[in-house]
What does this fold into?
Amino acid sequence: MIRHSALAAAAATALALAAFAQPPKEWAIHDMNRPLPRVVDPGTASTADQPGRPPSDAVVLFDGKDLSRWRADKGGAAGWKVDNGAMEVVKGTGGIHTEQPFGDAQLHVEWRTPTPASGEGQERGNSGVFLMGLYEVQVLDSYQSRTYADGQAAALYGQSPPLVNASRAPGEWQTYDIVFHGPRFGPDGALLRPARATVLHNGVLVQDNQALTGPTAHQARPPYKAHPEKLPLGLQDHGNPVRYRNVWVRELS
Ligand code: MG
It folds into this structure.
């Protein structure tokens, strides 16, 4: 019986892999019948003073007005404050997460660390973008401030340092543009493929389709544990009044 269920699990895994491997329809070159991509208004870029307008097909998670799409990790309404078009971490209220779950997605987040800067290393403007609530892209004041490489701004925390340090000075708005593909698990919970992240920090490529080793932890690299294909997106309260604005996501099919 054990042997039979192991075979069934292996067959199910093979089927799941085959579903990934299905080749797209082959089109002849310049075939006029080939369906055209959907039209999307790309919006506008942000300036130092003014957040840009998100693409027309984005799910806007924060537009500067309210936290209606966010919940406190501790339960209930998000306890961060909204002021002057930005939301700000309120120390001790805990992390917040979106009501809506997301999986594979393009994500845009703008953030700024406190000015004047205070604290050193990991205590200087620390927050974080938690993809699926599990995988952290570090937010930190890494402008002329030293910490361990896999914990500086735009690191996949504890795993992968950014390719370069593209940080702006504290008090200046910075951008993350993230393309994330979540991990996939077989019916038996086995990892079929790891999560991958591409990150542009202030428009500069800092994570290039980088595989994650598992969920983010402190001083540990735990292995993957099977989870749904969509989970809420989180922002971290690390005790520093980091601000966010213009947060939007586009789900990838
Ligand atoms: Mg952090």
The first strand starts at residue 59 and ends at 62.
